Amino acid sequence: MDPLWMVALITGLTTGGLSCMLVQGGLLTTSLASQLEAELRTRKPARSGQGTRGSAAGRNLLQPILLFLGAKLFAYTVLGFALGALGSVLSLTPGMRGALQIAIGIFMVGNALRMLQVHPVFRYFNLEPPARVTRALRRKSKQATGLTPLVLGAMTVLIPCGVTQSMMALAMGTGSPLLGAGILFAFTLGASPVFFGLTYLAMRLGALLEKNFARVAAAGLILLGLWTLDGGLNLVGSPVSLSRLPRMVAEAVSPGTGLQSFSASGDGGISPFARQDAVPVSDKITIEVGDNGYTPDRVRAPANQPVQLQLVTRGTYSCSRAFLIPSLDLSALLPARGVETLDIPPQKPGTRLQFTCSMGMFTGVITFQ
Amino acid sequence: MVKKTFVISDMHCANCVMRLEGLEDDLPGIRYIRGSYHRQTLEVEFDETQLSEEQLRAAIARLGYTAQA
Q: Start and end of every EfeO-type cupredoxin-like domain (chain A) (predicted)?
């Protein structure tokens, strides 16, 4: 499974369900309550009205909730496909994708701060649907027909919550219809169990508990937003990013830690050394590209001469295969198995070339000396 | 007709806006109602012969919100 799908699924399971519930849960519960009230009126005309919501919760709820969630899943998958297609038409360069990802990260963190009510300005991170849309949704949710949950489920695409809006932006950033559809499918699927469970509770919960949901969802969203922001920084070739911070600190404290040099051996093989030393650096660098990143991820190379970068894959299927050196605008989509060689032009001594996967998740650096 | 803008600072998501705008289905005499989560406001135009401001405030309070002037 592509890591992005996995991230979307986990996001849905953790923060997405709670956040969606805040915005869209009301539609479903209103629809359920109306339906149950209508059923009750049909059976006992004299006893309709208040008290129905609580006592009826748990009865005949399974089918409408499943219809709602099924329709929602389908609608968001189609939306993801469309957004991915839109992203591909725009043919974003890695730099543009990075900038978009940074913006998405800021948007997500902003939304989390809005949910935590840090400052009124963060309210603008939540997009308000037009009055006509909200009115149509509200009216529909009060109609008590069997089809209502199905229609409402599909119409939730019109009122995405903050986390969903972030996932939509992520789907567009991939520039791939299939990946976009996969991201929103995984996210919506992930959010479904939480949505399902909370729907029962929501029949009785008020605004007080919703605030606690918001806090939990916001905390998750901040983490996810920082992760996205970090990927964006890596993609634009920023020398500083959050994930590299511990390594940069370690290097500042103890220079050379973890840096690997390559000696030129007769058979063209590699001899990585764990610490900086006097071994002459080779003009041929070999990096293993795995599902979880690049090994080694910090290498040295000789300055003022061309360098060959050999990228080796042995059954690699993650986004690490989409290799990129942002500052040189050099990229390659590696085969799942094999060796791909990239030629790096001569670099000045002291140059540090950041390399990354196409999503900015896995990174490394080549230092020229 | 009276036009009144209430500040409702305890709205915390778009769903709150929908709930508040739903008052037009429950109360008589509302000609126009529009909430804004961004501005934390609820704009209501209503017929004072059918609905008083106090009744409107009470209905907002029943939904769990506080209407300021």
A: 282-367
Instruction: Work out the average pLDDT over B34-61.
Output: 92
> What domain count does chain A have?
2
A202 CB within 8 Å of a chain B CB: no
* pTM passes above 0.80: no
Q: Which residue has tokens 């032009």?
A: A345
3-state SS class at A279: coil
What string of DSSP letters covers A230-243? Answer: HHHHHHTT-S--TT
Asked if A210 lies within 8 A of B40 by C-beta distance, the reply is no
Is the interface score ipTM higher than 0.90? no
- Mutant choice from B9, B13, B34 vs A, greatest count of A C-beta within 10 A: B13
Tell me the shortest Cα–Cα distance from B62 to chain A, in angstroms: 11
Q: Is the pLDDT of residue A267 over 50?
A: no
Q: What residues of A are in contact with residue B40 (Cβ under 8 Å)?
A: 120, 123
pLDDT (tens digit per residue) in A329-354: 888 878 888 999 999 999 999 898 98
CB A289 within 8 A of CB A320: yes
**Closest CB from A26, A115, A159 relative to B19:** A26
Identity (one letter) of the amino acid at A195?
F
Residue span of the structural domain in which A105 resides: 3-235
- Quick check: is A240 in a domain? no
Final residue in a domain of this structure, among A211, A235, A259:
A235
In angstroms, the CA A356 to CA A330 distance is: 11
**Residues A127, A116: Cα–Cα separation, whole Å:** 16
